[in-house]
Fold these 2 entries.
Entry 1:
Amino acid sequence: MRFRPWSGVYLSEEYLGSVAAAEAITAQLLTAYAAGGVVPLVETAVKKDAELEHVVQLLQAGKKIDTCV
């Protein structure tokens, strides 16, 4: 995302600086989305159980959700 970001998308140096920072910022964003009733759509390849668990943990940051698998 640093070298070929999506059109119109800006990601700060803090976000791009580390996976931990990106996940913390994403968790804050997801909390704000939840407060506004926004349901996130995850569009990524999830091929292993561990990857699915990681996605679910990220989505649950700050909010309890229902998941469909």
Note: The CA atoms of residues 27 and 44 lie 17 Å apart.
Entry 2:
Amino acid sequence: MSNGPWHLILNGKNANDETVRDAVGALRERGRRIAVRVTWEQGDAHRYTLEAIAAGASAVVAAGGDGTLHHVCNALAGTGLDAGALPAVAVLPLGTANDFARAAGIPEEPEEALDLVDRVPARPVDLVRVIPQRGRERWCVNVVTAGFATRITTDTPPELKKLLGGAAYFLTGMTRMGSVRAAHGRLRGPDFEWAGDFLVLAVGNGRQAGGGQALTPEARLDDGVFDLMLLPPPPEGEFAAALGALLRHGRAALLDAAVRRRLTWLEIEAEEGLSLNLDGEPLQASRLRIEAARGRLRMHLPAATPLLPDGEGSGRGAG
């Protein structure tokens, strides 16, 4: 597929972005074949990705935010085809937070981001497979969250995100601090069991979510495991002190108390149900299984991306 055309799937919100138009035009002048598809409604990104496979595309460029990348990767992984039989994935970050792209070091300028696809060969990357007890399986390329972090993402108005970018998530979080309610769940994985209340649960294939919050800062894309972070609530009567520490010292003051593991699979039960967020896309479930899928896709990333340190493939193991 290396000689095939690129299919650029452009989020409809960015259809009139002249910098994208200029970048595509510059590549076409150099002989690169690029088909542009603009999303209009739910399901378009999935359908366009399948069309790219049928057309023999060598790369599918997710041009939008984390949600656009999520839908492209779900369409590719959902085919059941091996990574080598599928187009590689590339990212043109045009969203509000662009959490995956920023953690990966992908350039924000469209021409630089597209030039990366030409210069750097695609490499195998892991995905996280999410299997709810009811409903279809989903795939996550960046971070799965549940708890207070998910509520912040859901409650942040699109208008505020457009005005403030990633800072909108922080502002929403501060306005919701007085109504924080912990979730409750039971978790089980390899040599790991945990039950109790938590404010934030994060399963990281990537490193950050919610507009730059580094929830799983050591995660990488090629080790065959995901990073789990569980943040329990402060002891009863100490919430005000914890909030003060957050304001003085930042999120590190809370995340120091987090439970962290590296796992190949995880089962979650929550009798009251959980509102989860997969790359910014919602999922409701009370029981689910999460699995690390090693080398599920190929992706064009910067040669020195922090998410593939030193190009090593198996420097860490599950714990």
Note: DSSP finds ten helices and 16 strands in the chain.
